[in-house]
Amino acid sequence: MENKQPLLSICIPTYNRAKNLEKSLNSLVRLPESQLGNIEIVVSDNASTDNTEIIVKTFANEYPYIHYFKNKKNIRDENFPKVLSEAKGVYRKLSNDSLIYEAGALNRLLEIVTLTLEEKPIIFWKNSKKNRSFVRFGNADSFLRKASFFTTSIATFGLWQEDCCNIEDKIDGTELSLWQTKFLFDLLAKNKNRKILYVKDNLFYVQTISKKDLSYGLYKVFYINYLSLLNNLVEKKIIQKRTYNFLKKDLFFNFFLTWLVRYQMQKDLYRINDSEHLETLVFDQCKGYVYYWALLFKYKKRVAFARIRRKIIVKKEISLAFLKKSLKKF
Predict the structure, then answer these.
(1) pLDDT of 267-321, one tens digit each?
(2) Containing H/E element for 292?
(3) What is the three-class DSSP state of 242?
(4) Where in the chain is the domain with CATH 3.90.550.10?
């Protein structure tokens, strides 16, 4: 008797994050809906050198709906289409190896997939702590204004089985470190009439990654590469130039500004490219725009507030340590 095709595949590319992956898998298998037979979890290991294989195989031995594949070498972002090609689900959802799934998350995913099974729209998954909702879009302009730079996240990305034909060979965009974004934009260009579903829900939270690797260069990937993909949509008349300009401004104010503050206050938490001076690159690029001074003011303001918060936290920690030491004397 043939196994029933799963309705949903959770597809996890991973590399040397055994501890994070273990917690992520635990969060999935503890959900009762994962045991119902219509879900599979597929892990594609990018030739990890830690104990990833042992951990995943231990899960797979206990939960037959977990499938493990290991690449012979690290194929980097090509592992994204690879893991989707190994899946069998009607719908295949990419997932970071650092996500902890909330209660009811798989039920929500299944609910949306079942609801759209006949129509098969492009589905964009925007994680949010606010009330669940979904919005339908009929054109790329309105959708991208809503989704903005979050189209670069693999956690927002998923594909129907029909979109996955020979997907392992479709590696355009991996050289940009934005395979998922390139593939999504190609779908938007391929069929202008295809509906887009923007789902906003509380599905997961992200674990803190020790020394997260940003050495690929935030400016190169998110300014040069991401904007080049958007500009390609403009040239193909998929989106308007004003949408491109809107998204560029949003990139400065809501992406780069956040990372600039993090670089100032939490640089020790990341592995970064020391030759990439992000602050200089961003503000030099922004000088020709009317919102340059507004961006600079907002940046300095946020850094100042962050420093004040840090001082308050340090004072509280010192006071607490002093209190504990004093109590030990009694």
Answers:
(1) 778 888 878 899 999 999 999 899 999 999 999 999 999 888 877 766 666 666 6
(2) helix 292-328
(3) helix
(4) 8-209
- Quick check: pTM over 0.90? yes
Distance of alpha carbon 16 from alpha carbon 36, whole angstroms: 30
Please give the Cα distance from 311 to 258 (Å, whole number).
20
**Whose structure tokens read 């949408």?**
243
With beta carbons less than 8 A apart as the criterion, state whether 74 and 46 touch: yes
At 160, list the tokens: 């129907």
- Contact by Cβ (8 Å): 168, 68: no
| The residue to which tokens 């029933």 are assigned | 4
The radius of gyration computed from the CA coordinates of the chain, to the nearest angstrom, equals 22
Specify the CATH number for 8-209; select among 3.40.50.790, 3.90.550.10, 1.10.760.10, 1.20.970.10.
3.90.550.10
β-bridge mates for residue 136, sequence order:
197
* Whether the Cβ atoms of residue 48 and residue 131 lie closer than 8 Å to each other: no
Tell me whether strands 122-127 and 196-201 are parallel, antiparallel or unpaired. parallel
Determine the Cα–Cα distance for residues 205 and 314; give it in Å rounded to an integer.
Answer: 26
Q: Which two tokens stand for residue 77?
A: 């972002």
Whose tokens are 């938490």? That residue is 269
Residues comprising the chain, all counted: 330
Please name which of 175, 131, 184 lies closest in space to residue 153, comparing C-alpha atoms.
Answer: 184
